[in-house]
Design a protein that fits this description.
The chain is of the alpha+beta class and 509 residues long. Strands 11-12-13-18-15-16 form a 6-stranded antiparallel beta sheet, covered by helices on one side. It has a 5-stranded parallel beta sheet with strand order 1-4-8-9-10. Strands 20, 21, 23, 24 and 25 form a 5-stranded antiparallel beta sheet that branches. A hairpin with a 4-residue loop joins β15 (332-335) and β16. It is 16% helix and 24% strand. It has 3 domains: 5-71 and 126-200, Glycosidases (TIM Barrel); 206-377, Sandwich (Immunoglobulin-like), CATH 2.60.40.1180; 406-507, Immunoglobulins (Immunoglobulin-like, Sandwich), CATH 2.60.40.10. InterPro entries: A_amylase_C_dom, Carb-bd-like_fold, CBM20, CBM20_glucoamylase, GH, GH13_cat_dom, Glyco_hydro_b, Ig-like_fold.
Length: 509
């Protein structure tokens, strides 16, 4: 999906018991924080070192979740055996036992315990200098030993604010804290004490609204974070349903939100590359109505414009007229989800086509000339810029129409192959690898016969997307690649109701 950092669960050794609240696979019930006693369910310290090295070799970053607020014990708070904790092996390191009863009382939040009577979470007394020293030494060692690049810090609001500057400094790297509260007035103040704070938008079962949430996270201020499972549109719930294993549901790299996040990641990278001021300027909303929010980020004269909608997938098609964007009359923009060009009119307004409640991202077209998005720039060694409309497209619809935001497109290619040859499809858009043969999509020969040499693949693509593509043969043993003849094929993903499918049939040329 194009990410440059991986955030993993806490690595400290956890309570070993299977409790009435489940196992401690999530990493928030730690018992041993020191030494090389990492959670054996996740591997060894050597495995963690290998992960860190492998990420850095790829130019990626390692972000680790850490807990400074509490330990974990299988039992009620009045039965805790403190000797099982390392290095906090005495009750003197902890606040006296009391479960949090009032989350509107900050003293209660900071001094009483999380957890329940099945698994208690003994609350460290971080006002003590000895506790602060142990925690600061621990985090410094953890970062140093495993070459960690960033931290996500759990339960930040449950520790007094004055603790965090010293902890952050001891870590010596970027730290983002969890302040689990929906009130910005409450959460924002913590940014004075730690590098950053996570935000907590509400997710939805409507795919269009989910895409708007994703686009907001990526194109507003800060570092976008995607939680494992969001790309599969997991609904989440209370523990443990909000931490389900992604491999149990048939992990799909063609899932609608997986593809959408990958495309969105590419768009943000292109925006950062095109404008040196993009990351340092604040996101500014400049238009809103009951269903729409438009915001801009980057240079004043050529910002990235993001348009969000709350209309949902059944939202109407209409043209939104935007003024105050900063673009001058005659400027040519490109909308990067639909790959359509828009020219700013003589009065400085931008006419943006909206449909199905989907977000839009606009950027100065000339700044996109060398990144391969939307086919604006296509390598010519194996592909040309000429287009050809091909084959027939068929759709099937149901009785009740909810507009789809993406459609499964079945590509059928009739081509005779020899043993060891495979057929792939590559094209000008991210889901087809942007002409990179190593990222091309393999077709299946499951229906291939000598009478009907059919190769096929179903790929989920955003509606309205226009792109160029070709089929290619790969000979596995020799690693040779043979492209179809020019010109490129061209296709536009049709609109349709949810449940609609599209089929493209072609023969090798």
């Amino acid at each position: 999906m194009g990410f440059t950092a991986i955030w993993i669960t806490p690595v400290t050794k956890q309570l070993p018991q299977n409790t009435g609240d489940g196992m401690s696979y999530h990493g928030y019930w730690q018992q041993d924080m020191y030494g090389y006693n990492v959670n054996p369910n996740h591997g060894t310290s050597d495995d963690l070192l290998a992960l860190s090295e492998a990420l850095h070799e790829r130019g990626m970053y390692l972000m680790v979740d850490v807990v400074a607020n509490h330990m974990g014990y299988a039992g009620a708070g009045n039965t805790v055996d403190y000797s099982v904790f390392t290095p906090f092996s005495s009750s003197s390191y902890f606040h006296p036992y009391c479960l949090i009863s009032n989350y509107n009382n900050q003293s209660d939040v900071e001094n009483c315990w999380l957890g329940d009577t099945t698994v208690s979470l003994p609350d460290l007394d971080t006002l003590q200098s000895s506790v602060q020293t142990l925690l600061n030494n621990w985090i410094g060692d953890l970062v140093s030993v495993y070459s960690i690049d960033g931290l996500r810090v759990d339960t930040v609001k449950h520790i007094q604010k004055s603790f965090w500057p010293g902890f952050n400094a001891a870590a010596g790297i970027y730290a983002v804290g969890e302040v689990f509260d929906g009130d910005p007035a409450y959460t924002c103040d913590y940014q004075k004490y730690i590098d950053g704070i996570l935000n907590y938008p509400i997710y939805t079962s409507d795919y269009s609204q989910a895409k708007n949430v994703i686009s907001f996270i990526f194109f507003s201020d800060g570092i976008p974070i995607v939680y494992s499972g969001q790309e599969q549109h997991y609904s989440g719930a209370n523990d443990p349903e909000n931490r389900e294993a992604i491999w149990l549901s048939g992990y799909s790299t063609t899932a609608e939100l997986y593809q959408y996040i990958a495309i969105t990641n590419d768009i943000r990278k292109a925006a950062v590359a095109a404008d040196p001021s993009y990351l340092t300027t604040k996101n500014v909303p400049f238009y809103q109505d009951n269903h729409t929010l438009a915001m801009k980020k980057g240079s004043d004269s050529s910002p990235v414009i993001t348009i969000l909608s709350n209309a949902g997938s059944s939202g109407p098609s209409y043209t939104l007229s935007l003024s105050g964007s900063g673009y001058s009359s005659g400027a040519k923009l490109i909308e990067l989800y639909t790959c359509t060009f828009i020219t700013v009119d003589s009065s400085g307004k931008i006419a943006v086509s909206m449909a199905c409640g989907l977000p839009r991202v606009l950027i100065f077209a000339s700044s996109m000339s060398n990144n391969g998005l939307c086919g604006v720039s296509i390598p010519s060694a194996t592909a040309t810029t000429t287009t050809q409309t091909i084959a027939t497209t068929t759709t099937t619809t149901g009785a009740r129409c909810i507009q789809a935001t993406a459609l499964p497109v079945l590509f059928k290619e009739v081509v005779t192959t020899s043993y060891g040859q495979e057929i792939y499809i590559s094209g000008s858009i991210r889901p087809l690898g942007t002409w990179d043969t190593s990222k091309a999509i393999a077709l299946s020969a499951s229906s291939y016969t000598s009478f009907n040499p059919l190769w096929e693949a179903t790929i989920i693509l955003p509606v309205g997307t226009t792109f160029q593509y070709k089929f290619l043969k790969k000979t596995i043993r020799s690693s040779t690649v043979m492209w179809e003849s020019d010109p490129n094929r061209s296709y536009t993903v049709p609109t349709g109701c949810s449940g609609t499918t599209a089929t493209v049939t072609a023969s090798w040329k």
